[in-house]
User: Fold this.
Amino acid sequence: MIDPNRPRACVTGWPVSHSRSPLIHGYWLSRYEIDGSYERIATPPGEFSRFAARIGVDGLRGANVTAPLKLAAFAACDRHTDVALAMGAVNTLWREGAALWGDNTDVEGFLGNLDEEAPDWRREVRSAVILGAGGASRAVVYALLSAGVERIVITNRTVERAEALVKAFGPKLLISEWAEASSWLGDADMLVNTTSLGMSGQDQLDIDLSRLRPGAFVADVVYVPLETSLLEDARKRGLRTVGGLGMLLHQAAPGFARWFGLRPSVTPGLRSLVEADIVGANGKSA
Ligand code: ATR
Assistant:
């Protein structure tokens, strides 16, 4: 029997077996001694509205949404936060009264991670280069603009997607040819990779970091491996690096707070737990 007073949340995706969200939320439930649960629920594309109807029923307070369902989640919501509207995609769901609400916490995740790993960035970064123009890039653009970054150069293999970002976010964004990206680095305080290049099993990113000024920041949203070749190269050059794992950890916190009533911390203990899982999984697949 399901106890409707016992809070539950879940992650949904298709597939969903690879998601590390249960590890993160399970850690917090246990650390804060909350009598609740967080599970995986696979939802085939096309069946999202059936899944959405379960939220708010039998103690299911809400859900995280992962690929390929973030657009379907956006469409299923009655109400959206401003960030979700700007992203056009939803990764966090809950119900208020009859209304299904959707948020996108990737912006908060990216900012929370930068603030933790490189607190000086807000004072120092005026200009950035972003590789990629997909969903993660959109979150990074929004985050950097909201922090007052004055110029962002976007470069993407498919130029139309970069053009869509310029249309959405306006004149502080410029477009570079994909092959010309490194020529913009001399004027940049920060480089962010939002493509899947450098991820285990994917092609490597090929970019010459030599033009970045000493002390510039290099961030990667990829976190498998924990240190990508881009970050390794940047670290060896003495640049300031920010890995992608913290974005995953920080984007999880707002959902947990909403469903379980307590704002959780991203602690070294949580980080070690997820790092061990990534290293273990990589070892097995290698
Ligand atoms: P996400 O939501 O994680 O951002 P996405 O929307 O699929 O995922 O975006 C993936 C990004 O990685 C895109 O910028 C994509 O470039 P395209 O828009 O040209 O597809 C980029 N990407 C993926 N594989 C790539 C490759 N082999 N070379 C260059 N860019 C690649």
Summary: The first helix runs from residue 21 to 31. The mean pLDDT is 96.
